[in-house]
Amino acid sequence: MGIIEIPIGPQHPALKEPASFKLYLEGERIAASNVTLGYNHRGVEKACEARTYIEDLYLIERVCGICSHSHSTCFISAVEEVAKLEVPKRAKYIRTIIGELERVHSHLLWLGVAAHEIGFDTLFMYSWRDREVVMDTLEMLSGNRVNYGINKIGGVRRDISEEQKEKALKAVDALEERTKYYIEIVNSETTLIGRLKDVGKLSYEDAMRLHAAGPTARASGVDRDVRRDDPYLVYDEIPFNVITDNHCDVLGRTIVRVKELIESYKIIRFALNNIPQGDIAVRSPRRIPAGEAFSRYEAPRGEDVHYVRGNGTDKPERVKLRAPTLANFASITYMLNGGYLADAPIVIAAIDPCFSCTDRSISIKHIDSGKENIMDWESLRQYSIDWHKNRGFNAKNIQLKVK
Amino acid sequence: MLLSLFYIVIFPGFIFLSVYGCMVEYMDRKLYARFQNRIGPPWFQPFADFIKLIGKEAIIPEKADKAMFRILPAFALASASATILYIPLWSTGALFSFKSDLIVVLYLLTIPTITFFIAGWSSTSLYSTLGSIRTLTQLFAYEVPLYMALLGPALLAGTWSISEIATFYYENPLLALCNIPGFIVAIIALQGKLERVPFDTPEAETEIVAGSFTEYSGRYLALFRMTIDIEMLVLVSLIGAIFFPVYFPGNTVLGLITYFLKTIILVFILALVRSLMARLRIEQMVKFCWKYLAPAAIFQILIDVLVKGAL
Fold first, then answer.
1. Which residues in chain A are contacts of B206 at CB distance < 8 A?
2. pLDDT tens digits, B195-222
3. Nearest chain B Cα distance for residue A122, angstroms
4. Which residues in chain B are closer than 8 Å to A121, comparing Cβ atoms?
5. Is A66 helix (H, G, I), strand (E, B) or coil?
6. What residues of chain B lie within 8 A of the CB of A118, using their CB?
7. pTM value?
């Protein structure tokens, strides 16, 4: 049998979002692989430039469905830095609590997805059931299960009452108990370990070379966490450990994530118990002064980076965002090569990919020649005008008749 | 003649098999769902699925072998259903029985697996081809332990006829205890035969979509799904007949109740195994079967030979 080409995606049961992986198989082994992105380019950055800062906040929150708070906090930190706003401490604590609850929700979701990829549907159902607890807590605190909309420029929208605090602490206790059970499963279940161990190997050197981020890097022994290295919000006041692991494989990534859950519970508990009294927001100006800022945030999937440049109006001049998946993308093809086809879904899932958040460009592939080229805004517009003209449709000749 | 027709078409033939097969699928799905803390489907779900699939358009791939594509589901269904006639259900004797029907039953049960392979191969899609290669690879792994696990009890009973094996263990119920290792081997190998977790690599949906059945749709898929249900029922009945020698000769009603109880217990065990594990890779599966399952089956044969010598 020669080399056969297996397409995983753009539509495939293993993928939750469109991305294309071409695997070249020798029997069951992957000889080479090729990744194509660009099915979900939404033009978020361009759209941000056309909207006001307040509108952008809601747009940025919808970059990702899972780490929505990460993106919006990262963006708003940059904006507040440009505007030189001093956010009240209580607001920062509330942002931290929501951010950590979001990490819990994201990691539990990932655990379920990973279990499903290796055919362990029972763990999938269990972890998603427990995820409901954190979703309900988020709903109680912010009013929404996803896209919490808690941030506003200069603070937060909602306060946490004493009663809500008690409820949230209770939910965290329940979740911690369940998480200890998952740690036990990950450390003892034979078939699970058999499927995850030595799969998708990424050594420390390769993780550094390929710029892996977040749990993917930490599972390869890279001791890197923005929360500790470059504290934002109130992480410099809260004690927590950065979890690393030396397995360098998918099992390591799983262990890092479930252990991070325990750290998140510690942070949430500390923040809820030590939240200072005071205002939750300061008044923000509509026009943000000229200036630029760069902001980093440790999203559940890795380091999230936003750049904002203001020009004195109510609209930003430039917004650049880099989702953590982009940082981890280079390592996927490296980890896939030499593995089994059966491991491809879990290796892809192990970086917790979010393709839609990552897409920033479209590459155009000509069907006949196979040539690829990347187009900028002007040439894309010209291309569309020419395309329509070739089909006998000229926008200039259209006259609208109003009856 | 009329009675034979009744046996073949109504009970325990095709109609009983398809209805109870659907019920077995329902029990399996419901138990699986309850183990996973879900509610699970209503009792008529498998019937509804079947009727819905029958009514759907059946699409045949352009490059597929059209005759084969159409005929294979019926072939699989026929061979799986024919097997039930040789298996004792409510009493120690099967409806039809001859000297070495155990071998015939085992070979009839291999035919559906082979048809899955040919079906996948002849649909010419990449995913189906990979699925059918995996089906065949897996066949070589679980087939030997499964057959050896059934061979042990037959050796001890000194016969190749399932009815006679059942009679032998009914008369000597304590000897059935010697077959416990074989029973465990058979249950595990059954998961491979029925392509269920942890051995569902041939139809691992996150890797190769639906394996051999990727290109199947409409009534052809419905027939294949029915085949899998019937195959499960037949295998569960076979394991029950050989390893659980509880019969009430002369009392059909009590016999039928014990038969249903036996199948329900076995389905429970199968669903439990399914919900406790992750899917193995094909090479892990083959390694497991030859490294642990086959020696365990040989151990079973050894026990049976020694006990037979001692008797």
1. 13-14, 116-119, 345
2. 888 888 888 777 777 888 888 888 889 9
3. 5
4. 36, 197, 275
5. coil
6. 206, 278-279
7. 0.85
Q: What are phi and psi of A284, to 5 degrees?
A: -115, 145
Q: Give the residue from chain A lying closest to B32, CA to CA.
A: A122
Closest among A268, A275, A231, A216 to A103, alpha carbons compared: A268
Amino acid at A185: I
The answer, for A189 touching chain B at a CB cutoff of 8 Å, is yes
Using one digit for the tens of pLDDT, what is the confidence trace for A87-125?
898 899 999 999 999 999 999 999 999 898 888 888 899
Of the candidates A7, A115, A119, which has its C-beta nearest B204's C-beta?
A119
Q: Is the torsion defined by CA of A125, A128, A130, A133 positive or negative?
A: negative
> Rounded to the nearest 10 degrees, what angle do helices B218-243 and B180-193 cross at?
180
Beta carbon pairs, A and B, within 8 Å: 77
To the nearest whole Å, the CA of B247 is away from the closest chain A CA by: 36
Residue B206, chain A, CB below 8 Å: the answer is: yes
Euclidean distance between the first and the last CA atom of chain B, given in angstroms as a whole number: 43
Q: CA-CA distance, B68 to A23, in Å (whole number)?
A: 29
DSSP A342: G
Q: What is the number of helices (H) and of strands (E) in chain B?
A: 13, 0
CB B255 within 8 A of CB B94: no
Contact of A29 with A126, CB cutoff 8 Å: no
* Residues A72, B155: Cα–Cα separation, whole Å: 71
Which pLDDT does position A362 carry in this prediction?
63
| Burial annotation B22-58 (CB, 10 A radius, 16+ → b, else e) | bbbbbbbbbbbbebbeeebbeeeebeebbeebeeeee
CA–CA separation, B193 and B208 (whole Å): 18
CA atoms within 13 A on the CB side of A144: 15
Measured CA to CA, the distance from residue B14 to residue B81 in angstroms comes to 6
What percent of chain A has pLDDT above 70?
96
Instruction: Give me the amino acid identity at B215.
Output: E
pLDDT for the residue A310: 87
Residues in chain B: 311
Strand partners, B118: none
Q: Which of A104-108, A218-222, B1-5, B231-235 has the lowest mean pLDDT?
A: B1-5
Task: Check CB contact of B286 with chain A, cutoff 8 Å.
Answer: no
In the structure encoding, which two tokens stand for residue A251, read together?
């099992």
Q: Which helix (H) or strand (E) holds A31?
A: strand A29-36
- Nearest in space to A20 (alpha carbons), one of A31, A5, A32, A9: A9
**B126-157 and B218-243 helices, crossing angle to 10°:** 20
**Of the candidate ranges A206-215, A244-253, B140-149, B201-210, the one whose mean pLDDT is the lowest:** B201-210
Cα gap B220→B119, rounded to integer Å: 11
Is the separation of the CB atoms in A45 and A58 below 8 Å?
Answer: no
| E runs forming strands in A258-379 | 291-299, 302-310, 316-322, 363-365, 372-374
Quote the CA–CA distance of B41 and B33 in Å, as a whole number. Answer: 8
Nearest partner of A234 among A70, A92, A107, judged by Cα? A92
Encoding tokens for residue B6? 């009744």
Confidence of residue A364 (pLDDT cuts 50, 70, 90): low
Cross-chain residue pair B38–A125, CB shorter than 8 Å: yes
- Taking an 8 Å cut-off on Cβ atoms, the answer to whether A121 and B36 are in contact is yes
How far is A133 from A7, CA to CA, in rounded Å? 37
Q: Give the rounded percent of residues in chain A with a pLDDT score beyond 90.
A: 12
